[in-house]
Design brief:
Distance between the termini: 23 Å
Shape: globular
Number of strands: 5
Order of helices and strands: HEEEHEHEHHHH
CATH architecture: 2-Layer Sandwich
Strand content: 15-25%
Number of helices: 7
Strand order of the largest sheet: 3-2-1-4-5
Number of domains: 1
CATH topology: Nucleotidyltransferase, domain 5
Radius of gyration: 18 Å
Length: 207
């Protein structure tokens, strides 16, 4: 349902995607009463949290895909799950994918190059240009040698649009009353469905 609403809204966009993830608490109320006697539960890998990956279409900020995983999963690994949630009608129309350094991966860059999609992902500080024609080496050379031009032409700041969506959801804070983790995960994703529904109503009312 999230992908369906997101695809309908993304028809008006410039075919750019922004991808990011954020952690959500899975306890209702304050978490401090649950960790009063065990401070180790503050760890981000605790069962108190779930990580949600979002793919947002720009500039409408419509959520075109959402996936919830365990908090310890690395962002680069969650990219594959998120991509599978995208509408098959949307994928051929994507021109660029905007993400942060956590998605700087040879597998991700190679996959996007194969799909003829331009990755707008900043390279990590320890990235090395080996002088090959691989997508990763080309991006390292481009960003290191022409950093100013790269930031201006690729508009690297627009990946922060995902944070706007996360902030919109977290202000209202999803209520989780079920004890089963599977039901809690579904409850975490429902607000993103309503977010798309609200955007769709705004588009319809503006027409």
């Amino acid at each position: 349902m999230i992908s369906h609403f997101g695809y309908q809204l993304s028809k008006l966009d410039a075919r750019d995607l922004a991808i990011d993830s954020s952690g959500f608490e899975t306890r209702s109320g304050s978490i401090w009463r649950f960790i009063k006697w065990d401070r180790r539960k503050l760890s981000k890998t605790s069962k108190l949290f779930r990580k949600i990956y979002l793919a947002v279409s720009l500039p409408s900020r419509a959520v075109v895909a959402a996936v919830a995983t365990k908090s310890r999963e690395h962002d680069a690994h969650g990219f594959g799950r998120l991509w599978l949630k995208l509408s098959k009608k949307l994928i051929p129309k994507i021109r660029r994918v905007n993400a942060d350094k956590a998605y700087w991966s040879e597998n991700i860059l190679g996959f996007l190059h194969q799909e003829k999609i331009k990755p707008v992902i900043p390279c990590k500080s320890n990235s090395v240009n080996h002088g090959t024609k691989s997508p990763m080496d080309r991006l390292v050379k481009l960003q290191r040698k022409y950093s100013g031009i790269y930031r201006k032409n690729c508009c690297t700041y627009i990946r922060a649009e995902v944070e706007h969506v996360f902030g919109h959801i977290k202000i209202r804070r999803p209520i989780l009353r079920d004890r089963k983790m599977g039901n809690k995960t579904k409850a975490l994703l429902i607000p993103f469905l309503w977010y798309n529904h609200k955007l769709l109503l705004e588009v319809v009312s503006a027409c």
